[in-house]
Automatic annotation (TrEMBL):
This is Lipoprotein releasing system, transmembrane protein, LolC/E family. It comes from the Bacteria. One of its GO terms (biological process) is lipoprotein transport. It is found in: Cell membrane. Pfam families: FtsX, MacB_PCD. It comes from Parvibaculum lavamentivorans (strain DS-1 / DSM 13023 / NCIMB 13966). The chain crosses the membrane at residues 35-62, 284-308, 328-354, 393-413. Keywords: Cell membrane, Lipoprotein, Membrane, Transmembrane, Transmembrane helix, Transport. InterPro entries: ABC3_permease_C, Lipoprotein-release_system, LolCE_TM, MacB_PCD. Signal peptide: none annotated. The keyword Secreted does not apply.
């Protein structure tokens, strides 16, 4: 025996060497009479692929949905509100100056807000009026950067800015007048008379969140104080911080700076139930869709068990020719793991491609079916978002690979435990 032949045989007998890979790939390419096993392998591959792709797509869409909602809610509403105890805040400029001195506070904006009835010759609807100074409104990029008609220049001189959906529902545009009716009116012997006033529309904005675009009206601060009769005070001070997720760390410093006449309310307290529901839905969807991967792993087990049973004679012959139990076990492990790895890779690429083109696909399916697949009135957003989290994608891929590898262990052990004498006794 030459040295070259010895080295080749030694290389082929190494763990996961060329012999074991050759044997595994040979068993994966089933012949015609073994076609049923090949079909099971195909279904296992498809199950792993779809499971990984669906998990990536669903988790990315829910991440994008939460991020878009959070950015719009915080972009419009701020991170913390300081409100007066039972009344408006009178000395708001002095209180705002003290709060600005708290480390971590980015901005403090006085505002007046209240609910009104909006009327036009075509329609009527409820809305939320928020009175702000021109410089403060322009600092809200979610509004100032999304003006579709008109301008915010000279906003303090009079007029209002309304959302695009509200303008559409009311049949109004820039230059028209909008009538606002507030229950905070004058007190008469016959009760409280509603206050009614008309304001010219100076600008129309489109945030991209249908609920806000259909219900928000911005008004100059001085006009809002007169309309809602807060006199020299304001309804609240709106605060913004560098990191909104750590807003709870600022509650005590802000309360100490504001004084005992004020209460503090954070964005997490105002939207706790909404974001808690999103988190619960996200976790439940992850658990449910993981079942697809488990079913695909069970298909790998059943397919390999049938393959071991069908190849019993071949395994016995290989054992009598010198193949070790470890070599047989690794060969069948490679067969099952190859299906899992290929399916995981295909699912990863499919899910990533879907997420990167999800809005294009949504429009195509909507046009094809003639229905609205992502209604803004139901889902609040005007487009379907998707945000791919590398950590989550890595966890999905790792879980798919783990299930695929674990599914191959028992069939591979069965193949390695096969007794050659029993297998060849009746041959």
């Amino acid at each position: 025996m030459t040295d070259t032949t010895s080295r080749a045989r030694a290389g082929s007998s190494r763990p996961f060497g060329a012999f074991e890979w050759l044997l595994a790939m040979r068993y994966l390419r089933a012949r015609r009479r073994e076609g049923f096993i090949s079909v099971i392998a195909g279904f296992s591959f498809a199950g792993i692929m779809l499971g990984v792709a669906v998990l990536i797509i669903v988790m990315s869409v829910m991440n994008g949905f939460r991020t878009e909602l959070l950015s719009r809610i915080l972009g419009l509403n701020g991170h913390m509100f300081v409100r007066g105890v039972g009344a408006s805040i009178a000395d708001y400029d002095a209180i705002a100056e003290r709060i600005r001195s708290v480390p971590g506070v980015v901005s403090v904006m006085p505002l007046v807000d209240g609910q009104v009835m909006v009327q036009s010759p075509q329609n009527a609807s409820g809305a939320l009026v928020r009175g702000l100074r021109e410089q403060d409104l322009k600092s809200l990029s979610v509004v100032a950067d999304n003006i579709t008609v008109g301008s915010l220049d000279g906003f303090d001189e009079g007029g209002v800015a309304i959302g695009s959906r509200l303008a559409q529902n009311m049949g109004l545009t820039v230059g028209d007048s909008i009538t606002l009716l507030s229950p905070r009116g004058a007190i008469t012997p016959f009760g409280t008379a509603p206050r009614v006033a008309s304001f010219p529309i100076r600008a129309i904005f489109e945030i991209g969140m249908s609920e806000y675009d259909a219900s928000f009206v911005f008004m100059p601060l001085d006009e809002a104080r007169g309309f809602f009769r807060t006199y020299e005070g304001v309804s609240a001070l709106e605060l913004r911080f560098q990191n909104p997720d750590k807003v709870n760390d600022f509650i005590r410093p802000v309360m100490e700076a504001a004084g005992p006449c004020c209460n503090v309310l954070t964005w997490q307290q105002m939207n706790q139930s909404f974001f808690s529901a999103l988190q619960v839905e996200r976790n439940v969807m992850f658990l449910i869709l993981t079942l697809i991967l488990i079913v695909a792993a069970l298909n790998i087990i059943s397919g390999l068990i049938m393959l071991v049973k069908d190849k019993g004679r071949d395994i016995a012959v290989l054992r009598t020719m010198g193949a070790t139990r470890g070599a047989v076990m690794r060969a069948f492990f490679i067969s099952g793991a190859s299906i899992g790895c290929a399916g995981t890779l295909a699912g990863f690429l499919l899910g990533l491609a879907f997420c990167l083109n999800i809005e294009t696909l949504r429009k195509f399916l909507s046009d094809l079916s003639g229905t609205e697949l992502f209604s803004p009135e139901v889902y609040f957003l005007t487009h379907m978002p998707a945000e791919v989290d590398p950590g989550e994608v890595g966890a999905v891929v790792a879980m798919a690979l783990f299930l695929s590898f674990a599914a191959t262990l028992y069939p591979a052990w069965r193949a390695a435990s096969l007794d050659p004498v029993e297998a060849l006794r009746y041959e």
